[in-house]
Design brief:
The chain is α+β, with helices and mostly antiparallel strands. The chain is 29% helix and 26% strand.
Length: 415
């Protein structure tokens, strides 16, 4: 108890000292602090960025056997090599290296383990019928990776330079890129803070690495419509939070609600936000609905806006652009807007809900059959025995046609 008066006395002295500081002195102190922070940021910005010309390659001496396409399981088998680039606050981005696939060696005090300094991307390389290798909109992945990194005080990258390195890596691992339609090489760029410290602050070192996994179609036997559990008891993202960035820390908290939904017989959660139960995302995918306007019968496509409650999906953006280009002339109104689960249920009850689907890198599009909400299953428009709606199927065809080179398009980057 003797320490309490000492603490109170010290606090009183500090309070009195602050009161004695003149406004001019306080302003100068604040300006000096801001200048110091800005100077540090400017200094880091001037450090060397990623240089593809400095790439070094060490090839494996034990090449792996290829897994037969029919035996591929998502994220279970990996290619022979990995791409690795280290960064330090004093030297910037160091020489990029392609090395044999191997374990990472990190100190137990590395900050990524304690404070979740980690972000990642998901993208794919495709092989066209004539043997070309292609990436789909890699500039969007680079932009999103930088937004994620900025949010958690990790270093940003030169997106074009990193894309060039990814291209070289994919060409080197070409034998792992399946040639069959629906198959691809999944690419996972990951950025982590590597400073050895238990202190909380911007990491003084980081590691950007890329691993790759050959994968098959999300629906190997054809489309299978999924059922969703509308979830408002848990929140995946909120305005001002980090749910709109692709951080690993956003994914682990979603597992328990997903398991709870699975116990009730549903494949994924449909995340509802706020007392109004605003529809946001489905599982780890963006979500779209097609419906008819009440009274007029006008056909509309809705998806949630980029207001902090959803991830800015690459396929989401592509669906929006294709819908406006191809469905707009057919009379469709495409809108990014907030809408509620009650509105969807009302549209379903009145026969106005045409179809619903999720979008993401893994599945491209994923048709939805029902949404369980407040003790009832809301029908999302599919007829009995039907697994995919017309718009969902057309979207899949349009996007895969670009990814596999059926049509030449600015989104498809030839390696």
């Amino acid at each position: 108890m003797a320490r309490q008066p000492v603490f109170n006395g010290l606090r009183s002295c500090l309070t009195a000292s602050r009161k004695e500081l003149s406004p001019h002195y306080r302003l100068n102190w604040q300006l000096r602090r801001l200048y110091s922070i800005q100077s540090q940021e400017d200094a880091i910005a001037k450090l060397p960025n990623i240089d593809p010309n400095a790439l070094s390659i060490t090839k494996t001496t034990t090449p792996k056997e290829l897994v037969p396409p029919e035996d591929l399981v998502f994220g279970r088998s990996f290619t022979d090599h990995m791409l690795s680039i280290e960064w330090t606050a004093s030297e910037g981005w160091l020489r990029p290296r392609i090395i044999p696939y191997q374990n990472l060696s990190l100190d137990p005090a590395t900050c990524v383990f304690h404070y979740a300094f980690e972000c990642f991307e998901g993208m794919k390389a495709y092989k066209t019928p004539n043997g070309d290798l292609r990436l789909f909109r890699p500039d969007r992945n680079m932009r999103r990776l930088n937004r994620s990194a900025e949010r958690i005080a990790l270093p940003t990258i030169d997106g074009e330079a990193f894309t060039e390195l990814i291209s070289r890596f994919v060409r080197m691992e070409e034998r792992f890129v399946p040639a069959t339609r629906g198959y691809s090489l999944y690419l996972r760029p990951t950025l982590i803070g590597t400073q050895r410290t238990l202190g909380v602050g911007p990491p003084g070192s980081a590691l950007l690495y890329l691993i790759a996994s050959p994968v098959g179609p999300y629906y190997p036997t054809g489309f299978k419509a999924i059922s969703l559990a509308a979830t408002s008891s848990a929140v995946r993202a909120w305005p001002g939070g980090v749910g709109d960035r692709k951080l690993g820390a956003n994914y682990a908290p979603c597992i328990v609600p997903q398991l709870e939904a699975a116990k009730r017989g549903y494949h994924q959660n449909l995340w509802l936000f706020g007392e109004e139960e605003i529809v946001t995302e489905v599982g780890t995918m963006n979500f779209f609905v097609c419906l008819k306007e009440k009274g007029t019968g006008k056909k509309m496509m809705w998806t949630a806006p980029l207001d902090g409650t959803i991830l800015e999906g690459v396929v989401r953006e592509s669906v929006l652009e294709l819908a406006r280009e191809k469905l707009g002339p057919e009379g469709w109104e495409v809108e990014e807007k907030n809408y509620t689960m009650r509105e969807l249920a009302e549209a379903a009850d009145e026969g106005r809900l045409i179809e619903a689907f999720g979008t993401g890198t893994a599945a491209v599009v994923s048709p939805v059959r029902t949404i369980n909400w407040r003790g009832r299953d809301v029908d999302c428009g599919l007829k009995p025995g039907e697994e995919v709606g017309e718009i969902t199927n057309r979207m899949k065809g349009w996007i895969e046609g670009i990814q596999y080179g059926d049509v030449e398009h600015r989104w498809s980057v030839k390696l």
